[in-house]
Specification:
The protein has about 400 residues and is an alpha/beta fold. The chain has 15 helices and eight strands. Helices cover about 50% and strands about 10% of the residues. The relative contact order is 0.11. Bound molecules: 5,6-dihydroxy-NADP and zinc ion (ZN).
């Protein structure tokens, strides 16, 4: 087992009819009466939730900032930064999915940052956020786990860039996870959530065998549960019990626990972010495209763990090599069964140059040795993307 350290400071409140808990949670973390609610493109307005929230927050002076896009845009977030500085707001409440919560994490750091915060996202040496405006969140889509972790992914479409940030400053103070939000999610977003949670698990599982036996079983439990409930949630998103199972799985897949004591990969995500940046493909769709092709490319590295996954999660039998191969096929077929296409050209036919563009970006950033063995090269990344066209 590898050494590890974990802090999970976010208070998680799970279940329906918990809105009245929000004022008490905010009051725990600030004496400010001035707060800002940050939200996305309108789903919380259309559902009537924003009105309910404003009523629940009547003890506060509530400012609103809507319009944070899916794949939150740097320029939009900078407008929120200006607004918060101008109005001297001391607490933020994110209401949305990974995009709004990630955007709020970025805003949290950028408000007190004197220079151009883009340099922090570029990870220029010594450029880091050192202060954070405190924030909580209300999750409206189970997918990213952002509600209880400290990572964020920010897009800048005019540069065709998507960059990551994070650190201990950026854990939400609290997260309300209410599965009733799932009822209004379109099928595309439900499928995205299932695949994102699935891939967060495989990124931390399809590496080495035997490093942390309990963590492996836990990962297998999340994967098996997603396979069991995914189709049921898609079929009937208003089924509260099934929605709750999905929301919990997605939370557990990326709250930091699965990585304890094990070696992780994350290359599928790194390549996937480039497909979103270049082609606007949804985050989870990029994972469905890249994951299976990456497992094929690194088959020798991952064979043993793929075979364990095939046996324990898919119930496959036979020799190790054929189980490992079938496990990849089963995974891709599962994604497709949720209605998600697994080839780039199914989203954008204009993708012939994509493999070399991504390879060159990886070289420029010195991402030349990735994956659990630090042996995934830019040439292999290029080939994975070619194979995914
Ligand atoms: O903007 P609105 O109108 O609210 O619509 C959203 C958005 O269009 C809609 N939606 C959300 N809740 C809804 C709803 N529609 C109806 N009913 C509801 N209850 O769903 C659309 C997608 O929302 P978004 O927040 O973009 O989805 P998701 O949670 O999948 O987040 C994706 C973003 O998170 C990043 C991704 O890269 C991407 O930018 N990630 C963040 C991670 C993290 N912080 O740990 C890890 C992930 O790997 C991922 O990279
Ligand atoms: Zn993800």
């Amino acid at each position: 087992m590898n050494n590890f350290e974990i802090t999970t400071p976010t208070t998680l409140i799970f279940g329906k009819d918990q809105l009245e808990r929000i004022p008490e949670q905010i009051a725990k973390h600030t004496e400010e009466k001035k707060i800002i609610v940050l939200y996305g493109g309108g789903s919380v307005e259309r559902s009537g939730f924003l009105d309910k929230l404003k009523t629940a927050l009547s003890a506060f002076e509530v400012h609103l900032f809507g319009g944070i896009e899916a794949n939150p845009e740097f320029s939009t977030l900078m407008k929120a930064v200006e607004y918060i500085r101008e109005h001297q707001i001391g607490f933020m409440l994110a209401v949305g999915g990974g995009s709004v919560i990630d955007g709020t994490k970025f805003i949290s750091g950028a408000v007190g940052y004197e220079n151009d915060p883009w340099e922090v996202l570029l990870r220029e040496p010594g450029k880091v956020f050192t202060t954070a405006v405190p924030f909580g969140c209300i999750l409206t889509i189970p997918a990213t786990g952002s509600e209880c972790n400290s990572g964020a992914v920010i897009s800048r479409s005019e540069l065709k860039e998507k960059r990551t940030m994070g650190g201990p400053l950026f854990f939400p103070k609290f997260a309300l996870l209410d599965p009733t939000f799932v009822a209004t999610l379109p099928k595309r977003q439900l499928a995205n959530g299932i695949i994102d949670a699935f891939t967060h698990t495989t990124e931390q599982y399809l590496t080495f065998t035997g490093e942390n036996l309990l963590q492996e079983r836990f990962a297998e439990g999340i994967l098996s549960t997603l396979i069991e409930i995914g189709p049921k949630v898609l079929e009937n998103p208003a089924d509260y019990e099934m929605a709750a199972q999905l929301m919990y799985c997605a939370n557990q897949a990326l709250n930091g626990m699965l990585r304890c004591g094990v070696t992780t990969d994350w290359a599928t995500h790194m390549i996937g972010h480039e497909l979103t940046a270049l082609h606007g493909i949804d985050h989870a769709q990029t994972l469905a495209i890249i994951g299976p092709r990456l497992y094929e490319m690194k088959f020798d590295n991952k064979k043993e763990k793929l075979a364990q996954y095939g046996k324990r999660v898919w119930g496959l039998t036979g020799d190790e090599t054929s189980i490992a191969k079938s496990a990849i096929e089963k995974t891709e077929a599962f994604f497709q069964s949720l209605g998600v296409a697994t080839r780039i050209s199914q989203y954008d036919e204009n993708c012939q140059n994509t493999p070399s563009i991504i390879k060159n970006r990886f070289i420029e950033r010195n991402w030349v040795a990735m994956g659990e063995r630090q042996d995934l090269t830019p040439d292999e990344v290029e080939q994975i993307v070619k194979n995914a066209i």
